[in-house]
What does this fold into?
Amino acid sequence: MPTNNPWLNPYQRSFNSIKEQLKASLKTNVPEITDYSEGNIFMIIISIFAAIAEVLHYYIDNTARETFFTTARRYSSLYQHAKLVDYHIKSAIPATVDLILSTKDGSDLATSFNIPQGTQFISDDGKVWELATSAGFYWDRELYPKAIKIPVIQREIIGQPQRIDFGQIIDSSNIAITVIGIPDGKYYAEGSMALYIDDEPWTLVDTFAYSKPTDKHYKVELDETLTPTIIFGDGTFGAIPTIGGEATGYFYVTHGQNGNIAASMFNLMPTIPGVDTSNIKVTNQDAASGGSDYEDFAMLKEHVPLSVKNLGVAITKEDFEAAAMLVGGVNKAYADYACGKHVRIYITPDNGEVEASNALCQLVLETLNKQKVITTTISVYKVYRAYIYIEAEVQGKKSFLASDIRSQIVDALQGYYGFQNADLERSVRVSDVYALIDGVPTVDYLTIKKLYMIPKPVLVSGAISSPDLVLNTFNLIQYTKGSGTFEEVLIHFTSSTAFKVIVGTSEVNGTVGNELHVVSNNVEFNITIGAAGYNADTEYWFYLSPMNEDLITRSSIDTTMKAIPVFVNRSDALILDIHESV
It folds into this structure.
């Protein structure tokens, strides 16, 4: 539409604005018309043209919107944008979880043994899980006499021992083979295809950009209907299969997002040839996570720009974070970057709790090691949920119930600091908490008296089957230790309901549910432990520290102990750095 149109300009786009502008122009350009009622034939014609123009504007706007990646709202548009930059759209990602294997009666393991590669564990809902290590897993009774942690992945193989027949290669142009044999309710697992042409193995790749004309490479891509399809090169980038060749193969399938099962969903120990497993029990203390269905709209919106940013090479801090987030199953990533010499990566998983499994951490480590420069050392860590304890006096505005004011404050804090919304390595600042609570509509003013953190108990060594420590109250009254030092507090359970607290030379006995007041040197606090059915001889360590300390390793702690750093806020910034390394 020309901008010098005497009747309309480009800013009239809706039915009402077009009609009103035409009526106004009609009065100026055709003054002979004086009847502007809806029964006038001119008004009827104007209404028809206004409606047609609005629909045309709608299609024009949609076409323009879908042309740009940032404004596109259709999956098919994002699909085309992704292919334009040679982005490999991921198929389903299997969930992962760490299993705890332990002796049923608490005795030492009778003999060391190997859990073979491919050993399958069955969760209570019937899903198949496979040992997530390529060389099996050895349980050494000398290192771990009572329990051990092993990584498993939710997947099962299709096409073994007899490979699936995908048919003959009958055309040399645009060869595309649909992946068959996927059971209902399951998905092709990303990167799991093993393909043979006339019994000769071909290599799976994500892109043909680096393939030579003779390289026997193939890709498994999702088409616009999300159907996994095997495609080959064009003779310039990747070889073309021989006409008449027989294509066979095998692959894995997974339940995808439905594989993110809850905690305590394993009870059956699989049979291991030559090993007596009658005294071994299995469970998952944490929920499974990282599983997702075929890459959806939100994932493409996030992942495609990241793939363009680093192009498969990790050098800068942003490169490492982008590369980690592109690994299937990873939700958030943070890189602690020290001039590229050593990089520590912290991750959280997709579609689940905040804690990533060891299997996912290992996958990220293997992926980044392929993309880094030779001189860079990489470590990958899982992060843990931390609990922020705030004591504040709040004066609410008149006419509001105290319960409603408190509920709004809690919602605001959870919305900002909840792990689904919070960024990794976010500072917890007193000033931010003040601003957040003061911004609640029902709050007049407030005073924060105390603020400290207690992360989820961190398993220091080995594996145990005791419950996580439930702290109903941990009220630190005073703390005067110098910066860089910390006080150790030991909680030792003598039974499922009785325990003793040891701080320095002080020892106080208590029972679950009763508040204790403990004083030792300059440390003074109240503690109440909630009922959770603790195992006898289970021990937990608290570390009281005025600022962040890396306390994950402690040589004197054995496999029955968990470490819980408690960070006391003595400044306007408090950084939480609790992790478990690979």
